Amino acid sequence: MLVNMQGKDVISTQELELNEIKALLKLAHKMKDNRYGDEYNTLLKDKTFIMFFYNPSLRTRISFEAAATELGGHAQFLQPKTMRLKQTKGGVEVQAGETIEDAAKVLDRYASGMGIRILETAVENYGEGNALIREYAKWMDAPVINMAGDKYHPCQGLSDVMGMEQHKGNPKGKTLLMTWGHGNLARSYCSVIENMQISSRLGMNVRLAHPKGYDLPQDEIAKVKKNCQANGMNFELTNDPDEGYENVDFVYSRNWFGPDFYEIGKEAEIERASKMTDWICNEERMKRTNEGLFIHPMPVDRGKEVTDEVASGPRSIMVDIAENRLHTQKSIMAMTMAGKKIEV
Ligand code: CP
């Protein structure tokens, strides 16, 4: 399999070709099986990857840095507060600085690729983080990798699917339950959307469960439905916390905020969501699955999204998935930054 992704931005998996997704996953498995092998450890020799973070991270930062090291390159950490980006308030410039165009063009001269993380708490309106990532991508020739924006999280989606493949083989025809979980964190849904889009793309049935009022962006759900339809699979929606578990292969229980989050704010969202305690993945519910596995992007809100018993139990594969971040990101960096086509 020879797929040319050199220089390609990775902003959401839905925007990748199916053969690109398959090649990225195949290479990630090979890289996991031969982690320190000579085949891969010089692919980024002398190359720098910039990790530009508007928001905190454990997995993404450390796994990208380790990925660059294992490919023979270097990852450099960057935060907006250490830059001179132009800032305006009400149309008035409040800090002398430079435009994204200028910053991006300069960074492009130094690095072979750049990752950007900008989540909901760093923006005022849904979609602004995604727009910023695309603005950098517009001005850079080097690939821009989305390290979690307010809309998508492609590295997480690839790692989720890699974990599903490791434990249950080809995901085609299997069923995913994506269920809302209560909690005190008011979380964004970039990982949730990403997972449903890549799962449906690869031929899975998707069952979505959430309380009334917690609808996800309908344009993104429309893509999931279209993916399911194209593969002859089912998309189902329920507002019941219990009924979705029947015979599913994977359970992804995750809190996400309601569509009015950007108006009502975090405190009001938490006040509302923390009361719906019946929305939790527990052992009793897991027993009704098809020997279902628990998946989660982490950090996990134990006792709220999922019980400790399930999160630490034998059916939880969330730590394997967290490990996969390293392998899928090595695969992405090699495929987009190595400067040569990679046979997989
Ligand atoms: N899943 C994920 O992106 O984790 P971090 O926020 O720790 O990077």
Q: What does this 3D model show about the protein?
A:
With 344 residues, the chain is an alpha/beta fold. It has two domains: 2-153 and 325-343, Rossmann fold (3-Layer(aba) Sandwich), CATH 3.40.50; 156-321, 3-Layer(aba) Sandwich (Rossmann fold), CATH 3.40.50. It contains twelve helices and 13 strands. The chain has helices at 18-33, 59-70, 100-110, 128-139, 154-168, 190-201, 218-230, 261-264, 266-273, 283-286, 308-311, 318-337, and strands at residues 2-3, 48-53, 74-78, 87-89, 92-95, 113-118, 144-149, 175-180, 205-209, 235-238, 250-254, 293-295, 342-343. The chain has a five-stranded parallel β-sheet. The radius of gyration is 20 Å and the shape is globular. 50% of the residues are buried. The mean pLDDT is 95. It binds phosphoric acid mono(formamide)ester (CP). The site of phosphoric acid mono(formamide)ester has 8 residues, from helix 2.
Name its key features.
five-stranded parallel β-sheet; single chain; alpha/beta; binds phosphoric acid mono(formamide)ester; Rossmann fold; 17% strand; 38% helix; 344 residues; four-stranded parallel β-sheet
> Hetero groups bound?
phosphoric acid mono(formamide)ester
What CATH architecture label of the largest domain applies?
3-Layer(aba) Sandwich
Main structural class: alpha/beta
Q: What's the CATH topology label of the largest domain?
A: Rossmann fold
Q: Give the terminus-to-terminus CA distance.
A: 5 Å
Approximate helicity band: 25-40%
